[in-house]
User: Fold these one by one.
Assistant:
Number 1:
Amino acid sequence: MAASRFLHHPHMDAQEIVSGHTHATLERSRAQEIVLLVQDPTFLTYGTTQPKAGLGTGKIKTREESLRHPPVVFTPERIH
């Protein structure tokens, strides 16, 4: 319940949640001579089931999908 309240708070959004991580990553990256930014293609799929009109308990599935390319930061020392 606490997580649900946190995630649905009107002053909270995804950007706010990851802002601390983003700031720390940028600070660590600035301290490195070489930084590799590698894109990580990721599919986000959200699905639900909804009653289908006129079919009683039959359900249809709805699906929303998006492709993201978030960068992942590596340094030469941390690649093995």
Number 2:
Amino acid sequence: MLIPEGPQALTSEWLTQALRQTGTIKNAVVSSFQTQAIGAEGEGITGQTARVKLVYDSDETAAPHTLIAKFHAADSKIRDAFNSFRAYENEFRFYQKVAIQVETPTPRCYYADFHESGLTVLLLEDLAPARSVGGNINPSQVELAIRQIAKLHAFWWEHPQSDDILGKENMSVIKGVWNHLQNQVQNNWQSFPELTRDNLPQEMIGISQRIVNNWIAIADQLLYHSPRTFIHGDFTPDNFFFATVEGGVPFALIDWQLFKRGRSAYDIGMLLGGLPTEQRRQTEQDLLKMYHQILVENRVEGYTFEQCFDDYRLTQLDAFARLVFVMHAPLPGEDLDRYRATDHKFREVELPRRCAAILDLDAEKLIPK
């Protein structure tokens, strides 16, 4: 089957064939459907997403009446960039080979396809009326999310099948990608202090420069050195769905494009370091100890709490470098409303929180010499 270019290229015939291939429907035919863009005209940073409402010619109990269709980015340059990081392929592999083996709640995948060019399509369960809480996550929801990801980490800890699932890493290719990222973040740094002058603490300027100059070494320690497991890679509240008063699943984790191997505490650091500073300060030690205990109870050996804590601290440095990488002044022709919303989130919410975490945790002491 050809992979559609996006929601606008879907047809009733294609949807019928895709859902039949996986046994989602047996005899029914998709007679009509409607699509509704999700997000800013359905186009996120990495791809296109739409809710699809389906009408069948006959009733089947298991047939979904709505689903979420997720595609590659429409812009070929953006698609090529994310494809070079294997973002589309890794999400495809997660749903094909990992989601069915673990208890971590994720949307059911009705159909998936990927081409090495970066073309990709996922037909996923619509989790509504559950929804993302975004930045309004409460302490009990944080704990629930950590308990769930800990089970995935423990299950795949140094797992012998990980190479079969994601493929063996070509370190020469990886080195080339990271050299590009390093150059880009160093270029961005030239304007970063001025761009963030009201939000970057003075004591962070020197530390920031060292983080930027050593991003490759920081990422190398977190992603390519044992002990490793499968990690979500973007374990933040935007990707958590919780039940609402209308119902829905108690918890589900979405958006696996940054799925990869790495140190397990990376996911925990991405979550806790982005929380409101006082909430993080009050809860991080207890949550980290709870997380580490779950690993131990699930037969993870040789990973001390001290090592877990250092990996958690190191993650704050990586998260800061990623902010330098993505933040920028408005580009010619860029949608200013969309830019302002994203810039506000990065500059006025996440940046102060990540800086506070780095300073509170003395994380700069872990920057490679």
Number 3:
Amino acid sequence: MPLGGASALVLLSATGRRGWVLYDPVPILSILLPSLILIVLVYRLLCAYRLYLKFDHAFATVLASQVMVLLLYWKVLLMAEGF
């Protein structure tokens, strides 16, 4: 949970009244930090599926679950934009 809060704080601080500030390093962090967090969390999920749940094909299961979550977020974004 602290990683999600940190990434939300970075994303909120990266936007100003006029949108993204291009000369500030915070927008770069707003891309790199969530990407790093995603890699760490997917790795931890993979370890949990492999070691604790003892799935035979843990990588494929984690990949499929993350694709489903991505599709869900994409659908919600499209619904929010009126599609």
Number 4:
Amino acid sequence: MSWSSKKQQTVAASSCEAEYMAAGHCTKEALWLRSLLSGLEIASLGPTVLHCDNQGTISLTKDTSYHARSKHIDVTHLLSMSEWK
């Protein structure tokens, strides 16, 4: 389990965008923790589950195709999310 709190670097235009940015931060943290555990030779038992209660954010993370209302989010944040792969 990990916990962190920090001020977001950009201003979110909606709660969906704020949750999307937070989910991105959580994903980076989860990938780092999985890498740490792998380095310690502790096997992962399955995928890391990220919980979110914002339906707009869930929709964006499931389908990354073009969304007219989220174009500004993709331009700002999706490019940095491509570094996760």
